[in-house]
Specification:
mainly alpha; 91 residues
């Protein structure tokens, strides 16, 4: 696939996540990452799927990957901080 096609897979992934079709969303994000492995936004989107599935450790792992690629990725930083605060409230 061409690099510009990552957007198609990403958009499908977003729509599927919003519809609660998490495994399908992960498949589309995976294809987008194969095409463009250096796009931190794709890793962030994978983290959102895992968060919505309730798999917090996986969500944090994917957020860390996104932040390793771009330490200034504010949306990922805020999401990670929010998850960490939720975890402290739950404990």
């Amino acid at each position: 696939f061409e690099k510009e096609n990552k957007h198609i897979f990403n958009e499908f992934g977003i729509s599927l996540r919003k519809a609660g079709m998490y495994e399908e969303a992960l498949g589309h994000y995976g294809k987008a990452i194969e095409i463009s492995p250096d796009d931190e936004h794709l890793y962030f989107n994978v983290a959102r799927v895992y968060y919505e599935k309730g798999d917090i450790p996986a969500a944090m792992e994917w957020l860390d990957k996104a932040l390793t690629m771009n330490p200034d990725f504010d949306e990922a930083k805020r999401f990670k901080e929010s998850i960490e605060k939720e975890g402290k409230k739950a404990s």
